[in-house]
Amino acid sequence: MPLLDDSLGLAAQGYSWFPGRRRHSPNPDVLHTRLMGKRAVGLRGPAAVTFFYDEEHIRRHGAIPEPVQGTLFGHGAIHTLDGIGHRNRKMMFLSVLKDARQVGQLADQVGRAWDDAVPDWAGQPSIVLFDETAKVITKAVCAWAGVPVTDVAGTAADLTALVDGFATAGRRHWRARKARGRLERWLSGLIEQARANPDDSVLSQVASLTETDGRRLEPELAAVELLNIIRPTVAVSWFVTFAGHALHRWPELRERLLDGDLPYAVAFAHELRRFYPFAPFVGGVAVKESFFQGERIPAGAMVLLDIYGQNHDERLWPEPYRFDPQRFVDREPGRDELIPQGGGDPRTGHRCPGEDVTLAILATLAVRLARLEYAVPEQDLSISLRRIPALPRSRMALEVSGTRTAAGRAADGHVGAKPRGSAAP
Fold first, then answer.
1. Total domains present in the chain
2. Phi-psi category of 213—alpha, beta or left, where left has phi over 0 and alpha has psi -120 to 50?
3. Residue 1 domain-assigned?
4. Is position 156 within any domain?
5. Considering only CA atoms, which of 38, 85, 44, 41 is closest in space to residue 61?
6. How far separated are the first and last CA of the chain, in Å rounded?
7. pLDDT per position as a tens digit, 314-366
8. What is the CATH number of the domain that holds 346?
């Protein structure tokens, strides 16, 4: 029986498309369909992660559609490479993003930028958590990388536009393309300046990147890779906004964060990344005909790894639609179990090397968010699974009055935000 193209179904259903289709599949971990006119096979589960990140089975070159390259990743980015070319370029990302000292410094700078911003927030009738967090992280990551910024708000808006517009054909998409053009032109100039006056900054490290033949990357391509450090860092704003959503829905979680319990803050960050929708899946191309769990995968087929479905798989996560940071307390998730930023080994494969950065920033800001004194005005906090990437509709509006310590809150007889009005969960 011929497979019907389900591109419209994916566009209409978003994150729920893959899990919904899989319910009607004979094998719950394998889905056969067609997308954009091509044969596609969807996979789920830790064994699928191992299969997907084996370059003998799946390659990335030619797998990422141009609209995604033109917005989210950039043309010629590391995400489009395989083999020695990928590993050569990955070395720089690992040296920057997997170094504990550098990660700690970045998290500290983000924390200081947040603290600096709070008095200004308290002087406004209300703020939008997503927008303000993006500005905080943009200011911090650019300073950390040695990238001078004069317009933090405009730069933050462009960086978040890259993420917000990759999975749509409408206005958000064209806004992202225009933002990428501006950012690449700006950063290309900084790359050339860094080559003329090198130092020990992240900017200079990216400027010195070479191809496997020893040639330096063209400034435009180096700018693409510099963006692939800065842009995912600013994208943590999505998870911080989800943190605000979670603390509003389950205010009892605030107390342990308020006390600065770092292991619990990390567990909270893990659960945010598991529970809330961010990347629905990642894709590759089958190198050759192969079989997974007895199911044939034709050579050249599009292969999709179901990230959202795996992060909500009841076999891995009991009661998967219950938000429970406790599931990660005293338990580090298995490498190929929790995959919000991809799976496999980040040192050799395509897993995001910035995962440590995400966790460090989230843990840092979750504690600060718990300590923030604010009211939640009436707004629409619903999260549509049709929108990729998902976000609360209101982007989480807050009325901030300041920051208090745990001792101060205890003296007042309450912990957490003061709800006002009503908001949809």
1. 1
2. alpha
3. no
4. yes
5. 85
6. 42
7. 999 999 999 999 999 988 898 899 999 988 887 777 778 889 999 999 999 99
8. 1.10.630.10
